[in-house]
Each structure stands twice: as structure tokens, then as C-alpha cells.
Specification:
The complex is a heterodimer of chains A (315) and B (139). Chain A is an all-alpha fold and 315 residues long. In chain A, 72% of the residues lie in helices and 0% in strands. The longest helix of chain A has 31 residues. The model of chain A has no long low-confidence stretch (mean pLDDT 85). Chain B has 139 residues and is of the alpha/beta class. A five-stranded parallel beta sheet of chain B has the order 2-1-3-4-5. Chain B has a single domain, classed as Rossmann fold, CATH 3.40.50. The chains are: A mainly alpha (315), B alpha/beta (139). Chains A and B meet through helix 3 of A and helix 1 of B.
């Protein structure tokens, strides 16, 4: 019975289907808000779903000389990781808020697993791109990995702050329950610093301007995506869209859980984080890779270390 | 499944822009379609950088001898179904470059063309009409 329940959680709610729907909406919000900033009308709400559906109907080309298994397998790994992260974060949130034991999956979903799994879509994309035997694709993959190395350090430090503040709890559900009882993390000094650091790391995790160095449409023609077509591209686009809600949801669960309007509040807060990301995207130019690494390992890591020290001192 | 994919295709055409020796005027008009005044993204039309992602090739220019093999290669590389739209008098019929020593066009001499949009250059309205007619003819 438990196996069936777990399967339901992973595939339907709040795993693949639910996260994919929210992700599609979030990707549309990104395009729509961008269009409104340009004084354009923008695409209709179902645009992401139309894009993905269309891509499934198209031919999938494997370039000559590409490592076929890795090239076609990487998008599946990316999508599986994004679905699993969605199931982990959302079900922990549901289990903590409404005392719904049904949604308490496996070992209860701890923060470290969630952060590891969130890195897999980027790694899978890079691995698939390396297998594509295209110079621009390989260049994009290298950039993706270097960017990952740059932003993961402050991101992990930012994730450590709520763990320390909540007295060593590592389950997402437990951290959410702790905040419900004694106020959300963002109300403290270390919390707000860690939250801002996490938002900056998210911007790079989404791969959007100013950190779209790997894709760089105008420079290396969408980099790692260049050789992907048809259903593999659909899976990658879907995984990217799902990341757009799962990563903010994790940050909300760690930093910003608060009692009133629990479920709706989560969606609202995720929308606010996406809106901030879109505004940053539309008001900044793309930075170079070395600038991004210097930014993340310099001021951002310093701020994250300061947050950790403040959290250790109890602020 | 097939009809659903076709329906989705009509709502989401990704365009790859290819210049085969045009004077750049048609290219400017194509870019105008994406500006706030016309905003093709309302219909799900987006410009993509990789031909593997393309659903439509917007070809401008009379096809010079140097660009003809590239045109054929790009058409073969695009994942099907992929439509070819000849934009401008040159792409449709070689236009004023009819007697040109290095012109081996027009576009339909090299790849199958699904829609012709004449004009020198065609207005953005004409380009949008052409694309809309093409999408309307899909079933």
C-alpha cells in the first residue's frame, strides 16, 4: 500500500504532474511579465504547455557522432530529478502544515537531499550537452558547470542558516513546523541575509539573466540546448520550468514559512520570488563568467558566512 | 496525439531566421514583427538561435552560390515538421537579382517552400498575414 501511495505522491501530487503544472504557469509568468515590461502583450497562459506538447510531436534528432545513450538519457535524468525535488519539497510542506501523515515520504525528506537533487538538472544538462559533439554545446556545458561551482558554495551556506537557527533540525517538514511555532526565519538578522544570498543563488540556478552565461542566446546560440530537439528538448524545457517553482518553494520552506494562509501563502511567496527574479532579469545585462564567479565567491559568500556566524551567535 | 501536437504547433511556432544574401531590408522587417507594435509572441511565435529548435525557417534573399549549400544543410538539420517561408521578392523569385552572376535561387529551387510572402520588403503586417495563412492551412 505504501508503495502505491509513494508512487501517487511522486507521479501525481505533489510530484510530477502538480509541479509540472505550476512550473508551466511560472515559466509563462516569466514571459508575460517580461512582455509587459517591454510594453508588449505577451503569450497566453497555456504557452509553456503548447510549447512542450508541440516538441513532443516533433522529430528528435541525434547528431552524428554523439553519444546516443547519454545524449537522450540526460533530459530524462533532469526531469526525474526535478519531479523528485518537487515531491520532496511540496510533500514535506503539506505534511508539516496539515499534519497529513500520508504525505510523509520515505525518510521524511531532509534538506541535504533536496539541495543535491536540485543540482542534478544542471549537471544532467551539462553531461547531455557534452555528449552532443557540438563546440558551442560543449562550451555551454563547461560554463554551466563552472557557474554551478560558483553559486553552490553560498547556496549551501545559506541553507545551513535555518538548520542552525532551528537547533539542528534537518528535515524540511521539521524546519517548517519549527517556524510555524516560533516565527519565520526572515524576521531575524541572519535569516534576512541568508534569504537574500539564497535568492541570488536561485537567479543563477534558474539560468536567467544576469547569469544566463551558459545559454547566452545571442552569443553561443542557447549553448547546452543547441543540439536538442523534439521530445528531449521538451523534457529539458519542462525540467527548467519545474525548477522555477521547486527551488523557490524550498527557500520558502526554509526561510519564510508562516501560519496564516498556509497553502495559498506558499504559492504567493513562490510567485513573489519568481517576480523578483524576472525583475532582476529585465533590469540587468548578462555578466561574464569570471565576473559571476568573482561575485559569488566574493561578496555573496562573505555575506553567507556572516549569516552563518550571526546564526551561530543566535541573532 | 498527432492532432493534439498539430494544435499545439499552431500555438507555438519557433522561427529560425536565415539570410541567403538579402539586402538586409527584409530582415529588418522580420525583426519589426517582434517589437511591441506587432508583438508576435502573443501567438507563441519566438525567434530561436538553433535550427534544431525551429518549426519554421524564415528565408530572405535570392540564394547566392555560396549560401545555397548552407540553406540545404540547415533545412536537413531542422527537426521535422519544419516549414519554409520565403520572405520578400528575392526569396520568392530572385527579384532584382534575377540576372545576377552569383545568384542560383530562388529558394524553392533548393528546398520545398510552404509559404511565399512577396514585397520589397514585405510589411510586418504582410509577414504576419503570411504566417497566419500558413498556420490556418494546417490540419
Amino acid at each position: 500500500m505504501r508503495t502505491l501511495a509513494d508512487l501517487l505522491i511522486f507521479v501525481v501530487f505533489p510530484g510530477f504532474a502538480f509541479t509540472a503544472f505550476l512550473g508551466g504557469i511560472a515559466a509563462w509568468v516569466d514571459r508575460k511579465v517580461t512582455a509587459r515590461i517591454h510594453f508588449r502583450v505577451g503569450p497566453p497562459w497555456y504557452q509553456t504547455f503548447a510549447d512542450v506538447m508541440k516538441l513532443f510531436g516533433k522529430e528528435t534528432t541525434v547528431p552524428r557522432g554523439a553519444a546516443r545513450f547519454v545524449f537522450l538519457g540526460a533530459p530524462m535524468a533532469a526531469l526525474a530529478a526535478a519531479s523528485y525535488a518537487g515531491a520532496l519539497v511540496f510533500s514535506s510542506y503539506v505534511a508539516a502544515g496539515w499534519k497529513a501523515e500520508f504525505f510523509r515520504i520515505g525518510f521524511g525528506g531532509d534538506v541535504f537531499v533536496a539541495v543535491y537533487v536540485l543540482a542534478i538538472p544542471s549537471i544532467a544538462l551539462a553531461v547531455g550537452a557534452m555528449a552532443a559533439r557540438n563546440p558551442l554545446s560543449t562550451l555551454g556545458a563547461g560554463r554551466e558547470i563552472q557557474l554551478l561551482v560558483a553559486y553552490e558554495l553560498p547556496f549551501w551556506l545559506a541553507v545551513a542558516v535555518p538548520l542552525m537557527k532551528s537547533g539542528g533540525r534537518i528535515g524540511i517538514a521539521e524546519i517548517v513546523s519549527y517556524q510555524m511555532a516560533s516565527g519565520s526565519m526572515v524576521t531575524s538578522v541572519s535569516g534576512i541575509i541568508g534569504f537574500i544570498v539564497a535568492l541570488l543563488a536561485l537567479q543563477a540556478k534558474f539560468g536567467i539573466v544576469p547569469f544566463d552565461i551558459a545559454e547566452a542566446e545571442t552569443e553561443i546560440m542557447s549553448g547546452p540546448f543547441i543540439e536538442y530537439s523534439g521530445s528531449s528538448l521538451a523534457l529539458l524545457k519542462l525540467a527548467r520550468a519545474m525548477l522555477l517553482v521547486v527551488a523557490p518553494a524550498l527557500i520558502v520552506a526554509l526561510y519564510w514559512a508562516s501560519p496564516p494562509w498556509y497553502g495559498l501563502g506558499l504559492l504567493l511567496k513562490v510567485s513573489i520570488i519568481v517576480a523578483i527574479a524576472v525583475l532582476l532579469k529585465n533590469t540587468n545585462p548578462r555578466v561574464r563568467l569570471d565576473q559571476a564567479v568573482r561575485f559569488f565567491w566574493g561578496p555573496v559568500t562573505l555575506a553567507a558566512v556572516a549569516a552563518v556566524v550571526l546564526a551561530a551567535l543566535g541573532y | 496525439m498527432a492532432t493534439l501536437a498539430t494544435k499545439a504547433l499552431k500555438k507555438s511556432i519557433w522561427v529560425f531566421h536565415l539570410n541567403t544574401g538579402a539586402c538586409n531590408n527584409c530582415d529588418i522587417e522580420i525583426l519589426d514583427c517582434l517589437t511591441p507594435r506587432f508583438d508576435l509572441e502573443r501567438f507563441g511565435i519566438a525567434l530561436v538561435g538553433s535550427v534544431r529548435h525551429a518549426d519554421a525557417l524564415l528565408v530572405t534573399g535570392p540564394v547566392t552560390r555560396a549560401s545555397a549549400p548552407r540553406l540545404r544543410l540547415l533545412y536537413e538539420e531542422a527537426s521535422k515538421p519544419c516549414f519554409v517561408i520565403a520572405v520578400g521578392a528575392c526569396a520568392c523569385s530572385k527579384g532584382m537579382f534575377k540576372e545576377g552572376y552569383n545568384v542560383v535561387g530562388p529558394v524553392d529551387a533548393h528546398v520545398p517552400v510552404h509559404a511565399y510572402i512577396p514585397g520589397c520588403p514585405p510589411k510586418p503586417e504582410a509577414i504576419i498575414l503570411g504566417v497566419a495563412r500558413l498556420l490556418g492551412s494546417l490540419s
